[in-house]
Amino acid sequence: MSKLISIDEARRRVLEAVRALPAEDVPLAEALGRVLAEDVESPIDVPPFDSSAMDGYAVVAGPDADLEIVGESRAGRPAAERVMPGTAIRISTGAVLPAGATAVVPAEATSADDGRVRVRASEEGDNVRRAGEDVRAGRVVLPAGTPLGPAEIGVAASVGRGSLSCSHRPRAAILVTGDELTEPGRALRPGGIYSSNGWALAAQVERAGGLVVRRETVPDEAAGTREALAAGLDSAGVVIVSGGVSVGPHDHVKPALAELGVEERFWGVRLRPGKPTWFGTRGDTLVFGLPGNPVSAMVGFQLFARPALAAMQGADASARRSRATLDEPIPRHGTREQAVRVHLEVSDDGWHARTTGPQGSHMLTSMLGATALARIAPGEGEVPAGERVEVELL
User: Distance between CA atoms of 133 and 317, rounded to whole angstroms?
Assistant: First the structure.
């Protein structure tokens, strides 16, 4: 194995190799989870007119008064009449404020009978939503690079956008190696284990905005490995291989990648779990060789592949970092930085972290309940409870 590099150096080399994907027009109904490739500027004021914040009566602001009801303004149906001193117009929440009105008196502060209404005193602007109070015409409401969640979809709709220019979703091929792997739902044969890495990695790709176009199990033999890798390289911009990147007699991934023209960018990270992580490129295609241990594969994806998928879509690729107080001691590793799975809880003095249980790289259940990776620097002894450490939010 070549000289081990740090997590941050490995991530730098990955992001250095990323090329942003082109954009496409996406209907609003299909834009959830996509990343904006344009600034969205509002062509209108929101709301586009002065409106009522309450059900009640539009009036000329003033003292308690007995007023004549001369019309009604409903949502979508503005009143034709004008409010004058001595008159009122019944109004619904969100309806256009009638001409002449300067306040709205809530229904519960009125009593109406036989075409007239008694209203309590009001001041100018009471219960009135002004045009442009939320958004002014010409304002950029969503900058390029924004991941689109429910609120962003709602804002885009509120300014009249029926479609959005979004980055293409990265196409990913996921290959897991091992003769022992059995697909869930089938009977285990002697010496077999159920295949989890392909499913977990595919879910991580989808969560990161990618599109899984290929997911397959690869046998532990050279020709089959080369054939599967060739197909993956031809079908996807990101190829993720789990297992087969070490130096054992049945580890065929690295030689096959070399034959297929993939250039190695690094192999080996000062990381636990995930030391034998490999990364290379062929043109603009990114290839990640992740360890076969389930936790190592998921951690490697989080630290290296997730930022790459974000950068390809024009989103923020930086780690979502914070600091947390350890609620229990964590032993250090002598030479490698650890990515410890922890559950975060907020307290009066900030985040507190507790491990999710035994941290073996084969123990996939250590990912259950994990909300962050605590980065524990190498060294002697342990990091004591009460120490503040850096965490990367999952």
Answer: 33
pLDDT at 249: 61
User: What number of other Cβ atoms are within 10 A of residue 44's Cβ?
Assistant: 15
CA distance 113 to 117: 6
Helix runs in 301-349, H state only: 306-312
d(CA 294, CA 372): 17
Give the N- to C-terminal CA distance of the chain in Å, as an integer. Answer: 29
Regions of the chain where pLDDT drops below 70: 1-2, 246-250
Per the listing, tokens 């089959």 go with 224
Enter the DSSP assignment of 77.
B
Question: Architecture of 23-45+149-167 per CATH?
Answer: Alpha-Beta Complex (3.90)
pLDDT for res 99:
97
All residues at 6 or more sequence positions from 92 whose CB lies less than 8 Å from its CB, including other chains: 52, 55, 73, 74, 75
- 3-state secondary structure at position 304: helix
Alpha carbons 196 and 145: distance in angstroms, whole number: 32
pLDDT digits (tens, 9 = 90+) for 323-371: 999 999 999 999 999 999 999 999 999 999 999 988 888 888 899 999 9
Q: State the pTM of this model.
A: 0.89
Q: At the top level of CATH, which class does the domain 51-129 belong to? A: mainly beta
User: 166 Cβ partners below 8 Å, 6+ apart?
Assistant: 23, 24, 25, 26, 31, 34, 35, 36, 37, 148
Q: Please give the pLDDT value at position 178.
A: 86
* Architecture of domain 7-21+169-312 in this structure: 3-Layer(aba) Sandwich (3.40)
User: Which of 28, 22, 101, 21 lies closest to 59 in space, CA to CA?
Assistant: 101
Give me the CATH topology for the region 321-393: Beta-clip (2.40.340)
Q: Compute CA 21 distance to the chain's CA centroid, rounded to the nearest angstrom.
A: 18
**How high is the pLDDT of residue 194?**
86
Tokens of 212: 């899984």
